[in-house]
Amino acid sequence: MDQPKISLDLILANIAAEAEKAQDTATKASEVLLGPLETAMATTPYDVVYEEDRVKLKHYRTPGDVTLKTPLLVTYALINRETMLDLQPDRSVVQTFLNSGIDLYMIDWGYPTRQDRFVTIDDHVNGYMDNIVDYIIEKTGVPKINLMGICMGGTFCVIYSALHPEKIKNLITTVTPTNFDTDKGLLHIWMRAIDTDKIIDTFGNLPGDFMNLGFLLLNPARLMIDKYVGFFENMGSKSFVENFVRMEKWIFDSPDVPGETFRQFANDFYKKNLLIQSKLEIGGKRVDLKNITMPLLNFYGIYDHLVPPEACNLITKFVGSSDTEDITLDTGHIGIYVSSKCQREFAPKIIRWLRERDGEQRPVAVATENAGEQPSPAPKLERPSRPAAGEKPVRSVRPRPARPTHTRKEQNVKPSLTQVIQETI
Amino acid sequence: MEENKSKENDVEDMMDGMMKASTDFWTSMLKAVPDGGGIKNRYAESMEATLKRMQSASSALNDPQMADAILKGLNTLPEFFLKISKAGWEASARLQKKAAEKAGKIGQKTEAYQFENLDQGIFKAWREIYQEEFSQYLQIPQLGLTRYYQERLNHLLDQSNVLNASLSEFLYLLYLPMEKSMKVFQDKIEDLSKEGNIPDKAKDYYNLWVKILEGHYMNLFKSPEYLVSFREMLSQAENFITAKNEVLQDILQSLPVPTNRDMDNIYKDLYLLKKRVKVLEKELAGKEKK
User: Fold this and answer.
1) What residue of B is the nearest CA neighbor of A5?
2) Which runs of consecutive H residues, i.e. helices, occur in chain B?
3) Which among A157, A214, A159, A195 has a CA at the least distance from the CA of A271?
């Protein structure tokens, strides 16, 4: 009979050492958890400059001078909140943009109530978004603005840019689903399997908690067990606890999704995949992707389990623009915005890309070595003053810098799933 | 035969005695009531009428044919209760039998990383038995003024039971990866110990287990069985919520608060109105600019 070669002494010694370590962690954890914790999110100052129903427009206060002529409007998804872009000061896409001199606006979709159950995608895109774009154009005096979308917000931006191309100078899509004919993500499989009409008829709006439960069930071993094991192991570290709590606050801060919007998103996008085929109709108008003739920068995460690369990487081939670029980052759905590694790649790349298309030739300091270090502000640029009533804004003709078209950049170093989750947390 | 007759006589005597005692008692009570100045009060009149009805009923009961009919009706009662309880017992026995049959099979059929063709017979059996034996009692047509309210309440109870069955099946599926992972984990540890590569840190064991668990969940979530169960559970949950809302709607109607249905109608009107106003506002602003 084979005798197992177990070093019992070693195992016992390790158990003793781990017990000691656990006791030490427990002592430190009680100090950390009972002491003051800094877990505030989205602390970058802003002004609410426009409001319509539950929707607000945030205008961030630039710490230095505005160096990009064209303001940037960020459109977040209706799922979770835009606070993710400003989770903490050293991991804030918002602050990186502001430090680089971008005039930044962001839509806060608010918390839909039962009153909003009849609000459609048309109302969001041709209503709220269009009114906000008009407001920014009128306020700043520019003929077009830059538009950046996140996840479902990116899908809204694609629709908006196809329906109102005359108002958009550059389009940036990040983890944006546009092709729904894929079985790569469980979400895609499930969305096709469930009766969404019945859900909406039952609930009115799609409850945020219901969605969160669905997201947790995508990977219960990691998201319901391993994540919290990681928390208990690191409870002695104040900064870890603070970051973890911030992330928890963000994850479970889930507004409901207006019922009719979700119904259309599930049926026309997930089940019929109309957008990528340019067959989608919004507000009685067909969304023709060939109308997207402005430059397009498309980001997605190679390990994104919610919006897999297959759902994101077709858009650049279907639009009418000849200036498109795909950037694949080796991270997941949220890691793109909050992981320290992506902080050094994601926002600086956007700044550089926008600056190149803003008529500016000066290079922006990007790709800083340390996490949280911000690119140095670019030289000041005078913002064109707001034109008087009836006066047309003057726009100078700028030479367009030479750049590669239809490019795709990928990073092939595959991290383990644990690394991805730890990175995300 | 003789015995039956003797029983009938006993009952008749008992009824006679009871009616007589009751009539005597209430008649004396009635006489004790003060006259009220020569005018009989309404209370006394009512009592008198009731006593007269009791007396006539008593004399009717004394009729042997009538007493026989009542006795026969009473005799069928135990049979009625027996039939109801028999249905319950039979269903329970069948469920136990099926559970015993399936219990042995469940463990045999859950192979590692395999979630196809799962044996979920126990849940199916319960659902079938419930629908065949119990659900029908909640679907008996209701009568009278409150029939719709009672029907909605019965429907809620029915949906609650159906949801419990679907939810149990879904939760069982969610639990399966835990069970399978533990088995695979034990096998792996055994293999590693034979190779002499057994981990010496608790964290390594945990990492190994959680990786196996994750793999099992991924396989489960992609299996057609999970999708069917997920869809079924979701559908039953929605049916239950709809049924619950219907009952709540009935309750809320009697309270001075608006119901969801009322509010939805208002929200719809408000939504259409706001949309129209926004269009008009834009048109007006465009004209003003021109």
Assistant:
1) B196
2) 2-32, 42-62, 64-109, 121-129, 135-138, 147-195, 202-222, 224-253, 260-289
3) A195
CB-based contact (8 Å) between A19 and chain B? no
Cβ atoms < 10 Å from Cβ of A232 = 12
Could you report the predicted ipTM of this complex, rounded to two decimals?
A: 0.70
A327 strand-pairing partners: A299, A409
User: Closest Cα partner for A264 from A124, A121, A112, A114?
Assistant: A121
The residue to which tokens 């994601």 are assigned: A346
By C-alpha distance, the chain B residue nearest A389 is B289
Report how far apart the first and last C-alpha atoms of chain B are (Å, whole number): 109
Taking the C-alpha atoms of residue A32 and residue A27, their distance in angstroms, rounded to an integer, is 9
For residue B190, count other CB atoms closer than 10 A to its CB. Answer: 12
Tokens of A54: 């539950």
Q: How high is the pLDDT of residue A57?
A: 98
Residues B130 and B273 in one domain: no
Q: Which residue has the higher pLDDT, A417 or A151?
A: A151
- pLDDT number for residue B124: 76
CATH architecture for residues A46-384+396-424: 3-Layer(aba) Sandwich (3.40)
Examine the pLDDT at A108 and tell me if it is beyond 60. Answer: yes
Task: Kindly name the residue from A151, A157, A312, A342 that is annotated as catalytic.
Answer: A151
Q: How far is Cα B193 from Cα B200, in angstroms, rounded to an integer? A: 11
d(CA B267, CA A115): 5
Confidence at A388, pLDDT banded by 50, 70, 90: very low
For helices B260-289 and B224-253, angle between their N-to-C axes, nearest 10 degrees? 100
In B110-146, which residue ranges form alpha helices assigned H by DSSP?
Answer: 121-129, 135-138
| A392 lies within 8 A of chain B by CB | no
Say if residue B166 is in the same domain as residue B153: yes
pLDDT higher than threshold 50 for residue A361: no
What is the per-residue pLDDT for A156? 98
A312 part of the active site: no
- Say if the Cβ atoms of B221 and A218 lie within 8 Å: yes
What is the nearest CA distance from A275 to chain B, expressed in angstroms? Answer: 25
In the three-class reduction of DSSP (H, G, I as helix; E, B as strand; rest coil), residue B146 is classed as: coil
The alpha-carbon gap from A124 to the nearest alpha carbon of chain B, in Å, equals: 12
Our CA dihedral for A149, A150, A151, A156, rounded to 10 degrees, sits at -30
A406: alpha, beta or left, given left = phi > 0 and alpha = psi -120 to 50?
Answer: left
**Low-confidence stretches of chain B (pLDDT beneath 50):** 1, 106-109
HSE of A41, CA atoms in CB hemisphere, 13 A: 19
DSSP letter string over B187-212? Answer: HHHHHHHHHT----SHHHHHHHHHHH
Mean pLDDT over A230-244 rounds to 91
Yes or no: say if A146 and A169 are a contact pair by the CB < 8 Å rule.
yes
Cα separations in angstroms, A125 against A112, A140, A294, A329, B66: 16, 21, 18, 28, 81
Domain co-membership, B186 together with B280 = no
- Please check whether residues B209 and B281 belong to one and the same domain: no
State the amino acid at position A76 in one-letter form. Answer: Y
CA distance A389 to chain B (A): 9
| Option in A118, A198, A221 nearest B271 (CB) | A118
**pTM for the whole thing?**
0.73
Pair (B229, B271) in one structural domain = no
